[in-house]
Amino acid sequence: ASTWVPIIVIFAISALKEMVKSEDLYVGDVVRMNRDEEFPCDLVMLACSNEQDQYAFVETINIDGESNLKRNKTSCEDLIEKYISHKAETLNQDNLLLQATTLRSTDWIIGCVVYTGNETRIGCSKNKPPTKKTQIDKQFSVITIFVFVFQLALVIALSIAGIVWRSEQGVKMWYLDYTILSESYKLETIAFFLRFLTLMSLFIPVSIKVMLDLLKLFSSLLISVDNHLWDNDQNRGAISRSTSITEQLGLVSIALVDKTGTITCNEMSLTACSIGKLVFGVDDQYQQQKKNNNKNKSPLLNDKHLLDLINKKDPQTINFFRSLAICHSIQTFRKTKELTYNQTQSNQIESSTLADQQKTIQLDYQIEDIEEVCPVPDEQTLVDISRSLGIKFVRRDSNIITLNVLGNEEKYEVLADLSFTPVRKRMTVAVKRVDGIDQRFGQLGLRTLIVAIKYVDFETFQQWNTIHYEKALASVDRREERVNQACDIIETDLTPLGTTGISDKLQDQATETIT
């Protein structure tokens, strides 16, 4: 007993969760982070609350400015099975949770600390802020240097003239006491130089710099109190965070914006699409809707020809929207809401001398709700329009995607998910039916995607997955390049189904602001 008691105490203390400061974290520590908490260091995710597919979502707005959620996965799935088979998995960027990112749409994660302090990714990118000078400050510095050089040359010339005058005329003037200076020629030269330097010191107007700073401060305050810059919807005005903003804005002649979300509201709708040789959405109805600036509702929902094709269950049209409902990275989570309903019943007694008796019945209900989390707004738009047309994405359970196609439930097993990358510029999902069953848009300013399909027999897929894809994922050197090469092998001989054109609503007065 004397041996077991200390061991039990040590294990009990070690098993307790401890709240520690971020500065006390060391490499190798295992930490738990909850929803909406910011990661204090770089972590490798070991487990998360989503036990089905082991995905967690993080917000990286503090790193890259993107408000879209990024999907991360645990470092190893089916740990016991892979431990028995001695199968290892390499880590990649999908397993890394970076410092300064925030956990979203996930209750908790457990991670292992791999980098801390200045060794984190955001710590390695820290640089001293560059010294910024406005155009007026640069011109003032050049003028100051020019005036100083001119002042120095003038002082030297006057000093030489003073020494010459002293040697020729000054000695004759007995009332000027030069007895001390005459003993040292060098001391006399320095005295003349300092005397004229002091007299010419007003050449550089020091007060003008102070006046310029005061004018900048005053003009920046005018921006904060300008009623023309007040937004009634957000109930706030412009905030000037720099005193030099007015003079910098005055120099702007051309504004170039190339980032979605900067001048748009991220309220996207599928404006047009092409299925085979048919084009939908690009007609007078779309132009009228664009003129009315009403882009919240897709014009495809009112396209009679498209609705007729769907009602007739046209195979190409159904496959087009079925592909939109399958090929995406949306994750679903089940949420249970508890509701309490109180009902009061009154039982009246026939005797007039007795009061009514009331009985309260409490009923508890549990409503299961499905929450969708999408890291890419474009994908959510495509899934929503497919759902509105009858091809509904229901849920994703682990690697099973459930659809409701015109009232019929379909389930697909995800065999491989080739995520979108800027190099390949495409995304491919290889699925198996579980139950055994362009330029014109670009001219309109729409974001275009091509939807294609390819039927692959299971043996061919297994051969590609084993020889190319899994081997590329397990490689240590040039992993991303080899994964892209493996994806290129399977992403060939695709049959185009059509194209999509997505529009994003401009923010209020965006055109007036730029022009």
From TrEMBL:
<keyword id="KW-1133">Transmembrane helix</keyword>
<dbReference type="InterPro" id="IPR023299">
    <property type="entry name" value="ATPase_P-typ_cyto_dom_N"/>
</dbReference>
<keyword id="KW-0812">Transmembrane</keyword>
<dbReference type="GO" id="GO:0045332">
    <property type="term" value="P:phospholipid translocation"/>
</dbReference>
<feature type="signal peptide">
    <location>
        <begin position="1"/>
        <end position="22"/>
    </location>
</feature>
<dbReference type="InterPro" id="IPR023298">
    <property type="entry name" value="ATPase_P-typ_TM_dom_sf"/>
</dbReference>
<dbReference type="GO" id="GO:0005886">
    <property type="term" value="C:plasma membrane"/>
</dbReference>
<dbReference type="GO" id="GO:0140326">
    <property type="term" value="F:ATPase-coupled intramembrane lipid transporter activity"/>
</dbReference>
<dbReference type="InterPro" id="IPR018303">
    <property type="entry name" value="ATPase_P-typ_P_site"/>
</dbReference>
<dbReference type="GO" id="GO:0000166">
    <property type="term" value="F:nucleotide binding"/>
</dbReference>
<keyword id="KW-0472">Membrane</keyword>
<feature type="transmembrane region" description="Helical">
    <location>
        <begin position="142"/>
        <end position="165"/>
    </location>
</feature>
<feature type="transmembrane region" description="Helical">
    <location>
        <begin position="190"/>
        <end position="212"/>
    </location>
</feature>
<protein>
    <submittedName>
        <fullName>Putative Phospholipid-transporting ATPase 2</fullName>
    </submittedName>
</protein>
<dbReference type="InterPro" id="IPR008250">
    <property type="entry name" value="ATPase_P-typ_transduc_dom_A_sf"/>
</dbReference>
<keyword id="KW-0732">Signal</keyword>
